[in-house]
Amino acid sequence: MAYQVILPAAGQGKRMGAGKNKILLEMNHIPVFIHTLNIFETDDECQGIYLAINPDDEAEVKKLISQYHIRKVQALIYGGTERQYSIFNALKCVKPQGVILVHDAARPFVDQGQIHSLTDAADETGAAILAVPVKDTVKRAEGNMVAETVERSSLWAVQTPQAFRFSLLLDAYQKAERDSYLGTDDSSLVERLGHKVVIVEGNYDNIKLTTPEDLYFAEAIMCKRKEQIKQKGD
Length: 234
Fold this sequence. Notes:
The protein has about 230 residues and is an alpha/beta fold. Helix content is about 35%, strand content about 25%. The two termini are about 35 Å apart.
């Protein structure tokens, strides 16, 4: 199923504490967002990439896209003060057709098989998200006191990409703008329209790099994948 993808990458990455946008940090000597872009660059189903960036990063991002021969980036769009505003800015630039994915630029480990399952589900139902079952016990608190233990068998930790028919996602964003509503993710905006969202089970490797500790997990994932490739070669 053909699709276009929006990658919000305009954040400052304050929780990473790196002194620069976390997408520019390197894994195995390659910037994080280049790892992410390559997933879509090498996917025949991807028809275009739209990158929402911080204007301060524009020159560096352009240089790296050229250096690593990324051809599918259709536009660099300036992001807003919130992730939601950045995505809306980009949504106004995509071709108004088909399935649109939204994926965190700092989430470099999603695989194409998951993407294809997701786009197929969105094409069929209108809206689909990647998620994994919650593994930890979850408590609801009031202040610093436990109010209750939440039954976890129905809880999912949501990831990206999230996939939607273009018209549905545009309607959701336009309504959020009219209502001055700021959601937690794209799915939450679509849910406000009363539209059902399908869960496609993802993979625990599909982490978002947010804090310095996440870089250790990223290194472990890369080592595991290298070993898997080596074993297949043997």
